[in-house]
Write a structure and sequence with these properties.
The complex is a heterodimer of chains A (about 190) and B (about 450). By secondary structure, chain A is of the alpha+beta class. In chain A, about 35% of the residues lie in helices and about 10% in strands. Chain A has a four-stranded mixed sheet, covered by helices on one side. Classes of the chains: A alpha+beta (about 190), B alpha/beta (about 450). Bound molecules: flavin mononucleotide (FMN), iron/sulfur cluster and FE2/S2 (inorganic) cluster.
């Protein structure tokens, strides 16, 4: 059974003519795949490779290099908390701990038991004047506090629709897996 | 729209900031925007624009500080292959947010600059490589390019000129190294982002897709419309003898008013940190500050009177009796540098060793792994820092840090990331040696004590 829907495959096949070289289409194609599935399964990567007529190993090599691609399941809402220097100076470490406790995950690989959340500490998000900062559902959240994190979590747990402008996260990850060791560094891949 | 933190109505880049809906084409044009692009495309030759930008003294704001006009003049006059302008909007240097501030608030200023620069270097297609996390700037630029297209400002005959122009956006996917010129071009080609070993041919001969390419930073290109509109002499009226103009600074960390400030080059970091950003938090003292992103060597808190002049700042005389760190830039020693303009301020309640540890984690994590000193050295340093901070360290850990910083510097690495990691260790270890020794020898943290006693 193919993992990517026909219309996504269609969109992916339409990408190469937009670029001077087919390889430039790899990341936009992986974006479409990740948007549909929540993360990049080996099957999805090989389907992308087939659609672009590229070697699957090449596609996987690209996917594993960049931190915004996920090759393991992630929560429907993934919290990217900046812990780099400007945010750390303003309390990011405590907020990271708070966020992980609040959704009940022990590491960055784990997905909360309801499948809704996962958390990741990230490098500078380029919004240091608003430190501490978090990116969630394609939007930045500024001057973060434990209270703000709780409110963002509560909004997403409640069945009410998201307010306008809050964006749509990726679809829920397929299965919730047991916690695993921290992800290998991308350069080891 | 997030609350605007930083300069509005500044002299050059931020002159219209604070105007409602400045991001829309109508508002931008109503204030005089696109006048420079019209002027350039309809009344100036390619050479005239390049000469004007050369004469303005504008130097690249991405960190490498190279003359923009000279860079443009290296592009071939004729090429059998298409030529490209690539705008570096990857902004990932810790402490830097100014490119985001510019794109979010005034996307058309960047796009107008792109129109002028592309024409100047004889390119018909420009690419903006923007980091994947920048959701709002991406949305703003996408919308703005749509507005341009509707008006014909991109298309077959912008402003009636016979110069077809296309502007495309490519989104990055999270990797600091993509900001480095060669790695950025690799990434744009759809590959893993690893820096290129630049020997001839250089990007101006063989850049992205093997075509002649110029890479410029967002702020650099955003400055161009003002120069074309007001003239090189007016721009060169700002700044010092050699470092012309104004530039953007991001001030973050322990200050009262963090923000993105536009300031004339040549004023001091005191003007910026205490003046514009409101200075230290009440009752605290500034202990350390990084002048230009985490890669610019850290400075002690009592040296705020250092100039923002891009050459003058390097002079070791700025250190005024502080020990001179073993810093090496192409064989030359220096005090620190202007870098990306991301000014990080840290006060007496925060531990200098912990700060350096966090930065080394960053450099180790972001190393692309191509060169051994960078791939291995970063991890060695992180382990030494962990050991020191765990209370189990000793003088041998400080010795390891010393060896690692030396190994990272002095042309042993292919790109600036390795050097920067070495500079972080060397400058922190020199200026805050006492804190390292307290931790390593006595398992004591004076910053923590200051915080507890406060
Ligand atoms: C590790 C590393 C990261 C860099 N990151 C950026 C960046 O995020 N943005 C940028 O404009 N330049 C960055 N640069 C500098 C670029 O390589 C290049 O010099 C610059 O984009 C040229 O534009 P300019 O001449 O307008 O400054 C980086 C350099 C290195 C070594
Ligand atoms: S210095 Fe580091 S980041 Fe730069 S090319 Fe070498 S290994 Fe890669
Ligand atoms: S350090 Fe957190 S946004 Fe820059």
């Amino acid at each position: 059974m193919p993992s990517l829907s026909e219309h996504v495959m269609e969109e992916i096949r339409a990408l190469p003519p937009q670029f001077p070289d087919v390889r430039t289409a790899v990341m936009p194609a992986l974006d479409l795949a990740q948007e549909e599935l929540g993360y990049l399964t080996p099957e999805a990567m090989s389907e992308v490779a087939t659609a672009l007529n590229l070697d699957p190993g090449y596609v996987e090599g690209v996917a594993t290099f960049y931190t915004l691609f996920h090759t393991e399941p992630v929560g429907k809402h993934r919290m990217y908390l900046c812990t780099n220097i400007s945010c750390k100076l303003r309390g990011a470490d405590e907020l990271l701990e708070h966020a992980m406790r609040a959704v009940g995950v022990k590491d960055f690989e784990q997905v909360s038991s309801d499948g809704l959340f996962s958390v990741e500490a990230v490098e500078c998000l380029g919004a240091c004047e608003y430190a501490p900062v978090m990116r969630l559902d394609h939007a930045y959240h500024h001057d973060l506090t434990a209270g703000k994190i709780d409110a963002l979590i509560a909004e997403r747990r409640s069945p009410l629709p998201l307010r306008e402008g809050q964006g749509e996260g990726p679809k829920p990850a397929a299965a919730v897996k047991a916690p695993r060791a921290p992800r290998k560094k991308k350069s080891d891949a | 729209m997030p609350e605007l933190r930083g300069t509005t109505r500044g002299p050059v880049l931020t002159r219209w900031f604070g105007t409602e809906n400045l991001h829309s084409l109508d508002v931008y044009e109503g204030l005089g925007g696109y006048g420079a692009m019209r002027k350039a495309l309809t009344t100036m030759t390619h050479e005239q624009i390049v000469d004007e930008v050369k004469a303005s003294g504008l130097r690249g704001r991405g960190g490498a500080d190279f003359s923009t006009g000279v860079k443009w003049s290296l592009m071939p006059k004729e090429s059998p292959l298409p030529m490209h302008l690539v705008v570096n909007a990857d902004e990932s240097e810790p402490g830097s947010a100014k490119d985001r501030y510019l794109m979010e608030n005034s996307p058309h200023m960047l796009l107008e600059g792109i129109g002028i620069a592309a024409y100047a270097i004889r390119s018909h297609q420009a690419w903006i490589y923007i980091r994947g996390e920048y959701d709002l700037p991406f949305a703003r630029l996408t919308e703005a390019i749509g507005e341009m297209r509707a008006k014909g400002y991109v298309g077959d005959k912008p402003f009636g000129a016979d110069w077809p122009l296309d502007i495309r956006i490519f989104r990055g996917h999270g990797a600091y190294i993509c900001g480095e010129e060669g790695a950025l071009l690799e990434s744009l080609e759809g590959k893993r982002a690893q820096p290129r070993a630049w020997k001839p041919p250089y990007p101006a001969q063989k850049g992205v897709w093997g075509r002649p390419t110029t890479v410029n930073n967002v702020e650099t290109i955003s400055t161009v419309p003002w120069i074309i509109e007001n003239g090189a002499a007016a721009y060169a009226g700002f700044g010092t003898e050699k470092a012309k103009g104004t530039r953007m600074f991001t001030v973050s960390g322990h200050v009262q008013r963090p923000g993105n400030y536009e300031m004339e080059i040549g004023k001091t970091y005191r003007d910026l940190i205490e003046g514009l950003a409101g200075g230290a938090l009440p009752g605290r003292t500034i202990k350390a500050w990084w002048p230009g992103g985490s890669s610019a060597p850290v400075m002690p808190g009592d040296l705020l009177d250092t100039t923002t002049d891009l050459d003058g700042i390097k002079d070791v005389a700025n250190l005024k009796g502080h020990p001179i760190p073993p810093l090496n830039m192409g064989g030359r020693t220096f005090a620190t540098m202007g870098g990306s303009g991301g000014v990080i301020v840290m006060d007496d309640r925060f531990c200098a060793v912990k700060a350096a540890h966090r930065l080394l984690q960053f450099y180790a994590h972001e190393s692309c792994g191509k060169c051994t000193p960078c791939r291995v050295g970063g991890n060695w340093a992180v382990r030494a820092y962990e050991h020191i901070l765990s209370g189990e360290g000793g003088p041998e850990d400080i010795a390891i840090l010393d060896r690692v910083q030396e190994g990272l510097q002095g042309g042993r690495c292919l790109c600036g990331l390795g050097d920067a990691a070495g500079w972080v260790i060397a400058s922190s270890l020199t200026h805050f040696r006492q804190e390292y020794e307290e931790h390593a020898l006595r398992n004591f943290c004076s910053a923590e004590k200051a915080a507890v006693n406060a």
